[in-house]
Fold these 2 entries.
Entry 1:
Amino acid sequence: MLHLGPQDVVTWNGLLPEVLDRGSFPGGAVEEEVQEKHLGAFRFFAGSTLAIRADPRATRWFEAGADVDGDDLRASEYLSDVFERTGHLEAPANAFADPRAYTHFTAVPAMRAARAQFVSFAVDTLPPESGALRVLDVGCGDGGIVSELLPALLEAGRWDEVASITLLDPSPEMISTAKARLAAEWPGARVEGRLARLEHVASGLSGPFDLAIGSLSLHHMPAEMKGRALAALASSIDHLLLLELDADHDSPEVGSPRLAASIHHSYGWLLAQVLGPGDPDEVARESADQFVAPELVSLLTQPRGTRTEYHMRRDRWLTLLAEAMGPEIRPLGTQTALATPYVDLFALHMGRLG
Ligand SMILES: C[S@@+](CC[C@H](N)C(=O)[O-])C[C@H]1O[C@@H](n2cnc3c(N)ncnc32)[C@H](O)[C@@H]1O
């Protein structure tokens, strides 16, 4: 992950008036103070800052950024396209019509690999239990991850059978898809769908649960809210397994160099996976528009407290979880689920001892 040092932050902030007020363009003197390895990220910072102001000079910065980034990081290239289509920084309107777009998003090979790694991490770190499993999936989406996890846990003898599956998600489409899928796969289990956000129901869930999982879902709230929700959940769970993106989107404020640099690497990489190499086909483009653009635009335009994404670095997660979940639930392991030159995904296990 790209980490900007304090001096880089001062430099980038100092260069912004050159870009905004004095009309500097990429390749000019304004970039002499930017470290060469940061050039793509700086151009993304300049382009997105102009795009937020609906300033047409954004396009030149995005295009120059895309030249540096190539096919590995596609945030500047994608935002240049969005800016051309919408005239400012707004997620392109796209009806939730084609289910292939969601399937495409969840099935990109890198994400599949990370999920498979998450499942083996769960099998490796959960202690053998006997009896019937009661599982809670926080932010279940279409239920794909719990659907992969349960057979692996039973096969490895972690539990003997599945007693109940509680699916929690604020999206009605996701809840109904996940519920139908899990009910068909586990006819002997009680499958319950809760249409809610974790932070609103964490203390009132009808547990106890042997296991709670949160795969790419708990980053949707700021640190203080994560802490309160997890503290409320702690008394009704024995184990918590997280899969998260190691990125710095919680504490840095909107418009800051640190936030832009983290977005450039993490979402640039994600877009490269979703769009694929070369010209994206219609499904890939729709997938980026529906599932990546709203997050990207929220991060670039909305202040903390109102935006939708708050990914954190792994060490910050570990500190927050240890503080929130109390002395009885301890870190039982963490593993990189996917390592890339730009961003990592990691798995993390908190569990009750004894
Ligand atoms: C990227 S998807 C991940 C879905 C699934 N867990 C997986 O790994 O495929 C994130 C999910 O979290 C849900 N979500 C967003 N905010 C949430 C919140 N505050 N509480 C619970 N779930 C939330 C979204 O509706 C979405 O289905």
Entry 2:
Amino acid sequence: MRLTRYFLPVLRENPAEAQIVSHRLMLRAGMIKQNAAGIYSWLPLGFKVLRKLENIVHEEQVRAGHIPMLMPTLQSADLWRESGRYDAYGPEMLRIRDRQDRDMLYGPTNEEMITDIFRSHVGSYKDLPLTLYHIQWKFRDEMRPRFGVMRGREFFMKDGYNFDLTKEDALHAYNRHLVSYLRTYERMGLQAIPMRADSGPIGGDDTHEFLVLAETGESEVFYDSAVTDLTFGDREIDYDSVEQCAAIMEEFTTKYARTDETHDPALFDQIPEARRRTARGIEVGQIFYFGTKYSDAMGATVQGPDGKPTPVHMGSHGIGVSRLVGAIIEASHDDKGIIWPEGVTPYHCGIVNLKQGDAEADAACDALYQSLTALGLEPLYDDRDERAGGKFATMDLIGLPWRITVGPRGLKNGVVELTSRRTGDSQELPPEEAVKKIAEIYGDMHSSEHVQMMGTRSFHTYI
Ligand SMILES: Nc1ncnc2c1ncn2[C@@H]1O[C@H](COP(=O)(O)OP(=O)(O)OP(=O)(O)O)[C@@H](O)[C@H]1O
Ligand SMILES: [Mg+2]
């Protein structure tokens, strides 16, 4: 993309309404525009990041054996009356009446709808296990929408639902989700710590929230500092293996890590004092096992091996995809702007032309642009007729992890400058070397992991 042809409405001034850094930077970098309280348009740069996160979520869900589908945003109230949640959900649910006077609602979540789909089509235990998920807009009429996309009213969420014959099978599904979520957040450059949590209106006993530590987080959290040493890394996992998933569950959830809702001071005090931490965190996901709560209420049974109708064991599992855009920025920025982790960056690198209109500089930039594009990389070329300071400020604000700077002086010596956004370190090298370096940073061209990182294989491939 060339900046002269793009739509990147950056703001020079700090918007007064933004209280936290991610909200401020998303507005300043031209990623979002508010339409009403807690409701945003995703402008091109923000949309690109949102799609990258969505893609990672899809890839990791499909890898875990979960099946993508799509349910509507608008739902009929009837199903919610069956589960008893139409009245229980309260004023957070946006209720709508259609022209036939039928009660509708903008879905805050989809347990009822998926249970209805399941009971309509699945009749035998032989069709289990089954996990279906979708990534769709939700609406919750939050009392205090704030912090930009972090607590919106309309927000984008992945929600998945497992259907199993037994509690043991459903707990395996729970563990499988935990593993897939660990992978998902790490690919986004985040550490999200699973913490024992409270189940709220979804119901059930077993639940963990995933929290990204950040001063601006809305949740108070208590943990053993040893949990922050745990990383999933690039280990291979067989998602069908009950033992492997259970072992990872145990590894990541045995050390003390809880939100204020489940915090137990007596247990906390048993951790060596030097490792006790109290901090704040952003909830970026949650997994639940809730047994037969919905299948009992809505008659979702299968014929068991003994021929008798058996209510299925279920769980639901959510990732806050739009909130994650803000959470990543909270975790990765400096005073100049955003610093995107390589796995989610909207463009792989920036190209800054220090002397637009200079025949040699223009030609060198065009050549770089073409070489990078030919390798499947997406550069953002600042080809505006602007002074260098303004171009650098824009690049720093929008946070591409790598920048190639091209000017007549360097070109005389056959070099361009490659700069890391994170460290600020620069090196001079021939243009071909800069391209090679960037290709290396984004991985080995032939590995499938690389193709995923490049974002050239979109989730559509999987569906
Ligand atoms: N208002 C919101 N704006 C943006 N993301 C949200 C919002 N509410 C929930 N999410 C995201 O969706 C994920 C799954 O939804 P869940 O039902 O667990 O939310 P929740 O526990 O009600 O969230 P919270 O406690 O923050 O209100 C959450 O972990 C969070 O990342
Ligand atoms: Mg939650």
